[in-house]
Design goal:
Protein HGH1 homolog; about 55% helix; mainly alpha; ARM-like; about 350 residues; 21 helices; about 0% strand; Protein_HGH1_C; elongated; Protein_HGH1_N
């Protein structure tokens, strides 16, 4: 005989919307505490939930929240991430300017990206709303949504911050990294340059996801000249500013720094999240993997900034990253002992917060 909870799960697919609304609302907490109740009958409850993301907005809100939480289960994650029609529906809904659950859909996409095959979003296309100003490539739409949607300026119901976590996971794949460094025909812009401007944004989620995305894209060593060129990606000011505070430098050091880093205001504060600072320093370490990158960073006085960061940030991870970068920047280029900095950092180490399943 089914338990009350099992009966409640059965009401997910009830033909009466008021019954579906009550059932899904009451099931939200169980999506984190007892996910197994959604796995009965070969995941039939999950299959029903996938259909209901198009339901009445209030029902859909509960449904999407449940799916966000259930994505922590590997079997359910596979069911969600490999379902083409479901993924297409999520992507269709999220770009609608009046979609009330757009933020939840952003979180759901971020969690789906934990499944490697989501990288197939790279080749997906769909019509773009006129107000978004994008083209039919879904990845371009998501980047434009992230940029134009900040502060609720595209959709009053959403800020799309969690798309930063989606990009962070997608850029673990080489083909996605390639996309982010290639100028797009429809607007003539390199996608990664649209994200870099958020390294000092107020949202910790957005800053953290963007920092990880920049770091992952920096694993593409052939693109390093683009990263360092002022006429292309020009990444250094956006990576260095968040790790700088109001410390003073001697005149010779300061005048050799990049223009955007000179004469900072006395109330300038470095990022308050040591994980973000560590990620930015590791991005610099990746960019030091070529001699050209190291020479450029020496010329624009990156070392003094790292020196001050090491002194002022009381965090073991930050200090370790700073020490590794200093060793690279200060060593003799004639030294035959040249470690592979890209492999040293690696992408399979400790997961940052943006690598975790989001729960609601």
């Amino acid at each position: 005989m089914p338990t009350e909870l099992e009966e409640l799960v059965g009401f997910i697919a009830d033909p009466k919307p008021e019954i579906r609304a009550l059932a899904t609302e009451h099931l939200v907490p169980y999506s984190t505490s007892q996910p197994s109740i959604f796995k009965v009958d070969s995941l039939k409850p999950v299959k029903n939930l996938k259909l209901l993301i198009k339901d009445h907005p209030k029902i859909a809100e509960h449904v999407i929240t449940i799916l966000i939480n259930l994505a922590a289960d590997r079997e359910i994650l596979e069911s969600l991430a490999t379902d083409e029609k479901f993924l297409d529906e999520v992507l269709r809904q999220i770009i609608i300017a009046t979609e009330p659950n757009a933020n939840l859909l952003s979180m759901l996409l971020a969690n789906l990206a934990k499944w490697d095959s989501i990288k197939r979003v790279l080749t997906k296309k769909q019509p773009s709303p006129t107000e978004l100003g994008s083209n039919d490539l879904v990845l371009n739409q998501l980047v434009d949504l992230f940029v134009k949607g900040a502060d609720g300026s595209y959709n009053k119901n959403a800020d799309f911050d969690h798309l930063a976590y989606l990009f962070a996971d997608l850029t673990k794949h080489a083909e996605i990294r390639q996309y982010f460094v290639q100028k797009q025909d429809y607007d003539g812009v390199i996608p990664i340059t649209k994200l870099k401007v958020f390294t000092e944004y107020k949202s910790n989620v957005r800053r953290k996801g963007v920092a990880s995305t920049l770091k992952n894209v920096a694993f593409d060593v052939p693109s390093h000249p683009l990263f360092l060129s002022e006429d292309d990606i020009d990444i250094l000011p956006y990576v260095l500013l968040p790790i700088m505070g109001n410390e003073e430098y001697d005149e010779e050091e300061m005048m050799s720094m990049l223009p955007d880093l000179q004469l900072l205001p006395p109330d300038k504060q470095r990022d308050n999240d040591p994980n973000i600072i560590q990620t930015h320093v590791e991005t610099l370490l990746l960019l030091s993997s070529t001699r050209e990158g190291r020479e450029h960073m020496r010329n624009v006085k990156v070392y003094p900034i790292i020196r001050e960061t090491h002194l002022r940030v009381d965090d073991e991870g930050v200090r370790d990253a700073c020490e590794r970068l200093v060793q690279v920047l200060m060593r003799d280029e004639a030294d035959p002992d040249k470690a592979d900095r890209v492999k040293e950092i690696g992408q399979d180490g400790n997961e940052d917060d943006d690598d975790q399943i989001v729960e609601v």
